[in-house]
Amino acid sequence: MIISAEMKLRASLMRKESRCSHYRLDYPHMDTTNWNVWINIYQDSDGNMCLEKQPVGTWPS
């Protein structure tokens, strides 16, 4: 549960905007130009948690 909470927190801090239930006082507006993306979270070869942006609509079929 701790790892899951850390993943959510890191993704929330990475997203520099407010959207739906995700609201940030420091970024109170939506920024569709830069943040119409999925945030992918994965583990690299050293075991570190990594986050990357993937534009919506680019998911492989």
Architecture overview:
The chain is of the alpha+beta class. It has one domain. It contains two helices and two strands, in the order ααββ. Strands 1-2 form a two-stranded antiparallel sheet. A hairpin with a 5-residue loop joins strand 1 and strand 2. This is Fumarate reductase/succinate dehydrogenase flavoprotein-like C-terminal domain-containing protein. Pfam families: Succ_DH_flav_C. GO terms for molecular function: oxidoreductase activity. InterPro entries: FAD/NAD-bd_sf, Fum_R/Succ_DH_flav-like_C_sf, Fum_Rdtase/Succ_DH_flav-like_C.
Concise structural overview:
The chain has 61 residues and is α+β, with helices and mostly antiparallel strands. It contains two helices and two strands; from the N terminus they run ααββ. It holds the Pfam family Succ_DH_flav_C.
Outline the secondary-structure elements.
Elements: H1 2-14, H2 32-35, E1 37-43, E2 49-55
Antiparallel strand pairs: 1-2
Task: Please give a handful of descriptors for the protein shown.
alpha+beta, two-stranded antiparallel ribbon, 23% strand
**Strands of the biggest beta sheet: in what spatial order?**
1-2
Distance between the termini: 30 Å
State the oligomer. Answer: single chain
Overall geometric form: globular
Average pLDDT reading: 94
Poorly predicted runs: none
Major sheet summary line: 2 strands, antiparallel
Helix share, percent = 25-40%
What's the number of structural domains? 1
Number of strands: 2
Protein name: Fumarate reductase/succinate dehydrogenase flavoprotein-like C-terminal domain-containing protein
InterPro entries: FAD/NAD-bd_sf, Fum_R/Succ_DH_flav-like_C_sf, Fum_Rdtase/Succ_DH_flav-like_C
Organism: Desulfoplanes formicivorans
GO molecular function: oxidoreductase activity
